[in-house]
């Protein structure tokens, strides 16, 4: 009897989303436990319109949805996109080169419990003045993974306020526009993890952090005069782990990788590489712990007990190679990320620029994006027929929202097969 009861319990646990605990297999950091729209409906985006039935704006306007794409291409938006709470956006389901949202920024303020993967948000100079590429002013439990965000008019990816449990992993934060030209604020007492992400071509705030921050295995390339990692500069208390990052100077770089900081900034620092010579090879050194190297931070002997990466990349070249291959919406990179990675970053100091107009050469705007062609999906539930058989789901009955025995929705299991 006891064994039977135990087996029954295990069976039930396997069916509950809480049994898996992770936003997706391999999710890490403070935001790893977001469940997004799991348990709700699946919304298939079927056009590239700014609004209306079948658009991304309509899709994210309501909670408890997992959003997938039967189209690829450029979604040009006039007003800012506002994402609701309990939403999952799975950009890897889009055919072709995937989805780029262009023309304004995105608000995740109060978008509690969201999962966002494999999508590009490129704001641009037509976006609202004084606004960010991605903004979170309030909220908890969000994970952004393989997201490319660029061309913010104020900050590019900015978190500032009563915010908890956010992860930004395997992403690209690029080319903050003049006159602000910022990577972004990462200011929250409730925990922000930034893992394996590329900050590139931002004059300053790569990032500017305050509060609880875990910054691991990132590359910062071609920061400008404002500084690379800015260790707060104000009254609030900060507690940071800054481990295994690589700072590579470029043509725009004139400041040290770590700036500001005061006795309120408590940090465990370890294995941070600095390659300042712009000589086209990855070299340089590990910064020794000293206030000259890290500004006036209060050094800690051991790391804070924050959720860590599963596999810490130990050498600067491992971090560089990983980010070069994987950062951003890397299932199919657009020409912008391709240029940033393979022309600028790969030059190791020789090429890079701070820009004010992303429609000018060499970037020439966000498109074109190859839209590809969606696979046949007879029941329209977001899972193409050929994957339905692989997953053991029905191609004639809409069952993509159903929770599978591993705890993920069928549509999530499909999306996880694509990457
Ligand atoms: C998308 O926009 C086009 C052009 O404005 C319009 O013709 C079409 O009806 C829209 N689609 C939907 C589903 O609203
Ligand atoms: C953040 O995550 C921790 C650990 O899972 C949890 O205890 C806490 O309640 C979360 N905070 C919020 C505001 O959800
Ligand atoms: C900064 O780090 C470098 C490389 O480890 C080291 O040579 C240098 O002495 C450090 N600066 C100070 C002031 O300690
Ligand atoms: C980053 O800032 C600079 C300076 O504002 C600006 O010229 C450029 O447009 C922005 N992008 C970069 C890379 O700086």
Overall radius of gyration: 21 Å
- Strand content is 25-35%
Number of domains: 1
Q: How many beta-strand segments?
A: 23
Number of helices, where a helix is a run of at least 4 consecutive DSSP H or I residues: 8
Into which percent range does the helicity of residues fall? 10-25%
The small molecules bound here are: 2-acetamido-2-deoxy-beta-D-glucopyranose
Which architecture does the CATH hierarchy give at level 2? 3 Solenoid
Shape: globular
CATH topology: Pectate Lyase C-like
Determine the N-to-C terminus distance.
43 Å
Structural class: alpha/beta
Question: pLDDT below 50 for ≥5 consecutive residues: which ranges?
Answer: 1-19
The fourth-level CATH homologous superfamily is Single-stranded right-handed beta-helix, Pectin lyase-like
The major β-sheet equals:
23 strands, mixed
CATH class identity: Mainly Beta
| Average pLDDT level | 92
InterPro entries: Pectin_lyas_fold, Pectin_lyase_fold/virulence, Polysaccharide_Lyase_1
Keywords: Glycoprotein, Lyase, Metal-binding, Signal
Organism: Cylindrobasidium torrendii FP15055 ss-10
Signal peptide: 1-21
Commentary on this structure:
This protein is of the alpha/beta class. It has one domain: 3 Solenoid (Pectate Lyase C-like), CATH 2.160.20.10. About 15% of the residues lie in helices and about 30% in strands. It has helices spanning about 1-15, 15-20, 55-60, 290-295, 315-325, 335-345, 385-390, 410-415, and strands at about 40-45, 65-70, 75, 80, 85-90, 100, 105, 115-120, 135-150, 155-170, 170-175, 180-195, 200, 205-215, 220, 230, 240-245, 245-250, 260, 265-270, 275, 285, 300. The chain has a 23-stranded mixed sheet that branches. Bound molecules: 2-acetamido-2-deoxy-beta-D-glucopyranose (4 copies). One 2-acetamido-2-deoxy-beta-D-glucopyranose binds next to β22 and α4.
């Amino acid at each position: 009897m006891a064994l039977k009861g135990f087996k029954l319990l295990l069976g039930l646990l396997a069916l509950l989303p809480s049994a898996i605990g992770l936003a997706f297999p391999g999710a890490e950091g403070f935001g790893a436990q977001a469940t997004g729209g799991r348990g709700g409906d699946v919304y298939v985006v079927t056009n590239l319109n700014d609004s209306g039935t079948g658009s991304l704006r309509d899709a994210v306007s309501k909670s408890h949805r997992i959003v997938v794409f039967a189209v690829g291409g450029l979604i040009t938006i006039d007003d800012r996109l506002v994402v609701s709470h309990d939403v999952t956006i799975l950009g890897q389901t889009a055919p072709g080169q995937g989805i780029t949202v262009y023309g304004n920024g995105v608000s995740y303020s109060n978008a509690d419990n969201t999962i966002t993967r494999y999508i590009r948000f490129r704001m641009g100079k037509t976006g609202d003045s004084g606004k960010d590429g991605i903004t979170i002013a309030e909220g908890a439990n969000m994970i952004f993974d393989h997201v490319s965000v660029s061309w913010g008019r104020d900050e590019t990816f900015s978190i500032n306020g009563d915010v908890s449990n956010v992860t930004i992993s395997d992403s690209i934060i690029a080319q903050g526009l003049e006159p602000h030209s910022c990577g972004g604020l990462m200011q929250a007492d409730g925990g922000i993890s930034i893992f394996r992400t590329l900050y590139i071509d931002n004059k300053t705030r790569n990032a500017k952090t305050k509060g609880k921050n875990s910054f691991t295995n990132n590359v910062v390339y071609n920061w400008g005069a404002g500084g690379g990692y800015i260790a707060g500069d104000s009254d609030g208390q900060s507690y940071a782990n800054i481990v295994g990052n690589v700072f590579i100077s470029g043509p725009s770089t004139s400041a040290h990788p770590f700036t500001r900081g005061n006795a309120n900034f408590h940090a465990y620092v370890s294995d941070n590489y600095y390659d300042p010579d712009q000589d086209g090879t990855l070299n340089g050194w590990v910064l020794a712990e000293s206030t000259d190297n890290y500004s006036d931070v209060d050094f800690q002997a051991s790391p804070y007990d924050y959720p860590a990466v599963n596999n810490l990349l130990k050498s600067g070249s491992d971090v560089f190679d990983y980010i070069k291959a994987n950062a951003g919406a890397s299932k199919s990179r657009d020409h912008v990320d391709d240029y940033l990675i393979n022309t600028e970053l790969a030059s190791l100091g020789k090429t890079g620029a701070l820009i004010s107009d992303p429609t000018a050469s060499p970037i020439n705007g966000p498109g074109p994006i190859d839209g590809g062609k969606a696979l046949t999906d007879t029941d329209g539930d977001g899972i193409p027929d050929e994957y339905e058989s692989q997953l053991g789901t029905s191609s004639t009955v809409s069952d993509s929202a159903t929770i599978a025995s591993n705890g993920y929705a069928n549509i999530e299991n499909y999306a996880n097969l694509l990457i």
